[in-house]
Amino acid sequence: MAYYATINCIYGSVRWGCMVDNGEGKVVLVTGGYRGLGHFISRELKNAGYYVVATYRTDMITARRTAIELQIPVYKADLTQRDEVMELFERIGFNDGVVWAVVNNASSFPTGQLRSMSLDDFDDAFRTSVFASNMVINRALPGMMGLGGGKIVNIGMAGLMDIKAYRDVAAHAAAKTALMLLTRSWAHELLKDNIMVNMVGPGILDDPQRDDIWRERMRRVALSGKLTPPEEVAYAVRYLMDMDDITGRVIEVDPTFVVSSV
């Protein structure tokens, strides 16, 4: 049962949300939009006038902080579970409105060599990046079609156009490669429905919460040898939200280049 709190937000078993000023714009769902890159995307879109709705899976404290800071609703949902995806959209539809756009940002990021990676971590890379994204898209389609169109932006990884071996991030790269192919397939299928489907592929993100050893290891993996500022990735997502004639594209965001590929 939800109740009104002194901070002017609502708390329920599945939702943190503020009751003030989330704008009157189109509803955009940002999966995992409560922390990390997702937080930057949510903030960028909120500042652009969109009505942002975010999700989290386990970290309720950070989700609550984001809801208060950005004044957006943040729902608890494990997007790898079909019933939770269905319930999420029902609650958003009741509380916030029909979802016009989706940013599939939530994913795990297992690192290390494949020989030492647990099967659970490998499986989670694909379940969060590929299976969950596909379920969210399928569930969002009826509402988008009812609105006469919509936008889908999947978060991928820079460098996927060049099929190659990866060190330390092979599972993540494999999952994002599958998501890239899924993105282009959805774009082809949904073009007649005026639903634009694209991918933003960031380099290895600069995460200040990680220690120096991890960041140095990731610099060696990154295409440019540098880590990618999350603000630049969020801006690329906003660019695709604002454009009405781009679909089936992969926009790569790396400190040394920004490439849009057909």
Please explain how this structure is put together.
The chain has 262 residues and is of the alpha/beta class. It has a single domain (21-261), classed as NAD(P)-binding Rossmann-like Domain (Rossmann fold, 3-Layer(aba) Sandwich). 42% of the residues lie in helices and 20% in strands. It is built from seven helices and eleven strands. It has helices at residues 36-47, 60-70, 82-95, 119-147, 170-190, 212-221, 230-242, and strands at 3-4, 9-11, 15-18, 27-30, 51-56, 74-76, 99-104, 150-155, 195-202, 250-254, 257-261. The chain has an eleven-stranded mixed β-sheet, sandwiched between helices. It is globular. 44% of the residues are buried. Residues 1-13 and 19-23 have low confidence and may be disordered.
Beta fraction of the residues?
A: 15-25%
The CATH topology: Rossmann fold
Rg value: 18 Å
Placed side by side, the strands forming the largest sheet appear as 1-2-3-6-5-4-7-8-9-10-11
Kindly provide the name of the CATH class.
Answer: Alpha Beta
CATH homologous superfamily identity: NAD(P)-binding Rossmann-like Domain
Report on the biggest sheet. 11 strands, mixed
Q: What share of the residues lie within helices? A: 40-55%
Question: What is the β-strand count?
Answer: 11
The CA-CA distance between the termini, in Å, is 48 Å
